[in-house]
Every structure is written in C-alpha cells, then in structure tokens.
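Quick start: read one record
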Amino acid sequence: MRPVSLERAAEAMGGALHEVPAERAQTPVSGAAVDSRQVREGQLFFALKGRVDGADFAPEAMLRGAVAVVCERPLSVPTVVVEDVQAALGELARWTLSREGAPTVVGITGSVGKTTVKDALAAILRSAGRRVGATEGNFNNEIGLPLTVLGADEKAEVLVLEMGATHPGDIAHLSRIAPPDVGVLTAVSPVHLDSFGSLEALAATKGELAMSLPEGPASVLVCPVDAPAASTGTGRGIGRRITFGRTPEADLYASEVAEQQSGLSFTLHTRDEGREIEVKAPVFGTHLVEPLLAAIGGGLALGVGPEECARGLTRLRRTGLRGEVYRLREDIIVYD
C-alpha cells in the first residue's frame, strides 16, 4: 500500500487514537499484520481475537516496529480503538483501493483452480512487464484478502486476488473490500456442498463475483463456457464476457492437449480472430488446461495479447506444495 499517516488510517477505519502523541499520529503506515511474529517496521498490528487475544501480543508487535495496535479497547501502547478489529482491517483495505491511482483488481473465484489461475495470471502479467501483487498461498478469506491488499507494493498496477467462500454472501463481502474490475470464474463443481446445500446455491454464491463487477464497457468476466447462468451474472451489464473450454463454442478453447516430461502443451484457439497459438507450461495434469485458459482470458481482459500470454505461461511457477516434480536416480520422476 502507499504509505499514509496513522491519523488518516485511523480515520479510514472509523477508529480513535489512544496513547498517540501528535507527532506519532503523522507516522507513515505502510502495511498490516495479524501475527505479532510477522510484524515489520511501519505496519499496523491488528489484534484479532481467536484462540488467543491478539491484544496480549501488543508489546511484542511494538518492539518489532509496529506504528500502533488496532484493538477493540485502549491499551498501554499506541492504539487505534475500533468497534471490530476484523471489520477495520477490511475497511482500511477498501479505503486503500479507493484512493486515486489504485491498482486494477482482478477477483478470482470458483470451486477449484483458483490458486493455479492466480499463479498463471500473475506470471502472464509479469512477463508482459506489469507490476503485480497477488494473493500469497491461498489466503483468500476475509483476513487474508485485506492483508494482501495492504501488503502489496505501492507501485503495483494490478492486484490478482483469490476470493474463497464457505457460505453464501462470502464473495459479495470480499468484493466490497476489494471491488473487482475483472472477474475470473474458474469452475462450478459439486464440492463443499455441505456449506451451500445445493449446486444451485453454490453457483449463486460464485455468481456474487460477477454481480459485483461494475456495469459498463470497462468490466470483464472470464468464465467457463458451460457455467451455470446463476454464476455468470446474467442480467448484469458487464462490458465483456470471455468464455473458455475445450469446445469451439468457447471464445478460448484448447485442442491437441499433450503431456511431456517438460510439462503440459496444447493449441490455443481464439474464436473471434480464428488464431491458433501453441501453449506450453511447466506443469503437469490435463486438468490444468481449464485454469490456464482462464488465466489467458484474464490476460486478454487486461490488454495482453495471446502470444504474450503463451510466453508468460512458460514462466509459470505454482504456489508451493502444488504439483512439485522431483527427478530421482534411475530416471524416476515423482509428481507430488
């Protein structure tokens, strides 16, 4: 995030300063943490309550360089007193993205493939010379998403954010914190139905991302060609929809899918332009074709050409502990 004074940050969160001298109120704030062990100089420490009370770790956070502690009660250290710490974290992220010159936000949701799409789209954009901030790991909930926003480089041009859901309304809530300009729906599959009750309810929850996109020519939704209507914001005045899949009905579709020791390859077809482009990525598993197509769609939505998207995917490195390849002796290859 671009640095802002402690006084202005407190105002953005609707908080009151306590034990903060006038000079300290002008100290720049440049990020946030919820774990006192991870606090860095210039950050705010948000004292969440869980199995333990974050306020108990306020002294440690201050020793590590926190500008102040955000808490629901006054402490003996510089404090921003708020009604709800978690809500304040989201509010500060939302305000940060409302400032002039804020980065473009890409929201990614779906039953499966979110982290792969995030990694692939970030690789595409970086290859194209864009400054990118992206969700670390799969920190895609109401705590992880605002931390990603507040931890992004102040010069970031694009934020690629995963948005997870375990209940109806979750995506809408995350989209209020980080209003998306581009939405990417990876898939709607019968997983986590215990939380949603039915595939229809799950589709509607995923559709909260599409319904959060601004109406008008600038917004873009990337989605599977066969996605349920409830998940694609039917009736919403989205500027452009880019579909993907393995059939010619999709705007982006793949054929000649193959796997070699170097990874996955396929031919990308762009329906509107009638072009065919070879795509290679150092990942394994034909189930990853759709996430790669979704990432290409995200790249096109942000003005990256299909050839550059393909070049970017050659540099793809997936989030740790996903698809690791180990080459052992005697030509043994382990795909974890």
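Residues 85-98 form the longest helix (14 residues).
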